[in-house]
Amino acid sequence: METKNATWLTEFVLTGLSYQLEWQIPLFLVFLVIHLITIVGNLGLIALICNDPHLHTPMYLFLGSLAFMDAWISSTVTPKMLVNFFATNQMISLSECMLQFFSFAFSATTECFLLAAMAYDRYVAICKPLLYPVIMTDRLCIRLLVALFVCGLIHPAFHLLFLLRLTFCNSNIIHHFYCDIMLLFKISCTDPSINVLMVFISSGSIQVFTIMTVLVSYTLVLFTILKRKSAQGIRKAFSTCGAHLLSVSLYYGPLLFMYVCPGSAQADDQDMMDSLFYTVIIPLLNPIIYSLRNRKVIDSLTKLLKRSV
Question: Which CATH number fits domain 11-308: 3.10.180.10, 2.20.28.10, 1.20.1070.10, 1.20.140.10?
Answer without folding.
Answer: 1.20.1070.10
